[in-house]
Amino acid sequence: MKGRTLRHLKLLRASAISAGVLLCLLASPASLASDEQLSGMKSEISRQEQQLNSKSKKLNALQSNLKSQEQSIAAIATQMRNANADLSVIEKDISTLNRESQRLEQLKLGQMELLKELLNSQYRQGQHSQLNALLSGEDSADMDRMTVYAEKLSKARTDAINELAATDTELQLKRRALQQQTEKQKTLIASLAADKAKLEKEQQAQKKTAGAIRREINSDKGYLAELRNNEKRLKVELERAAEQARIAAEQAKVKMDGLGKYKGKMQWPVKGRILHRYGTAQTGQLRWNGMVIAAKEGSEVKAAHDGTVVLSNWLRGYGLMVVVDHGKGDMSFYGYNQALLRNVGDTVKAGDPIALVGNSGGQDASALYFEIRRKGNATNPSPWLTR
To answer: What is the 3-state secondary structure (H, E, C) of 206-233?
Structure first.
């Protein structure tokens, strides 16, 4: 009993010492320094998280501004394209009206000459009237012939006067139509000049925003992260487009038999110098899934093959993009456009214009991003295009 009590006392003493040591350690300057370091680290982590959130918000806001600016540019560019088409029609109408007016002027001159001759003939015939014929002793047969001739001459003169009046009326109508078309042409040209100025202003704003975005992702790490996120966004959009592709295949007005039979026969979407080829390095370990072709701003982007439009929208990193479904899981992509000319559900044939070349998505230069995917996997587009 006594031995057991001694062991208990020793254990209690050891426990008391351990607790004392622990209290001393917690109260020591080293422990206090660790607490301060831990608190400082937490504050730094919190600050960096706030900074990252702030950067992310700023980048998202810039991308939102870019989207808005590029959609405005697209609307103006489409408007200008339609106005130019209208102007072309008006100019043809003006040319036709000018030719018609010139023809009518010549016809009028001829009719006036004819009328002069008829009036002269009638005047000369008047000098040999029936009274003169009677006084001169001409027989009744000659007199009848003169009467018939006078009647025919009078009718010819009346017809000539009516034809001249009709020609004159038609000429006046043509002149009025020509004046109206010319006024319409002037209005349209003035509108195009205003649209061009507006477009240039929007493009300047777009350049500034794109520059600000590039500064925000200026590090390799930041650029890589943005590219990866853009690829994820594209996959999400393609998943949404999958249902549209299924509907398109059912309602297709064009062949939706895939691209398999057309390798090496597909049309180039634009003609130009290749800036980036499929599979070449984009940044870090990321490589280009398609090709980038330099082309003049505003030039037409053509569908590479028959199909149905399943996506026509602005996508971060790709700008204004059209995706055409060709059936059997084959799709072609057209990005960086200035404007989109087709809507979801539209059917297109090879060579049909589907967009206008631009630099949307924050690109430095005017170009087209072109990609082909088969069952969701990117493939080198070059061998598929006609040589």
So the answer is: HHHHHHHHHHHCCCHHHHHHHHHHHHHH
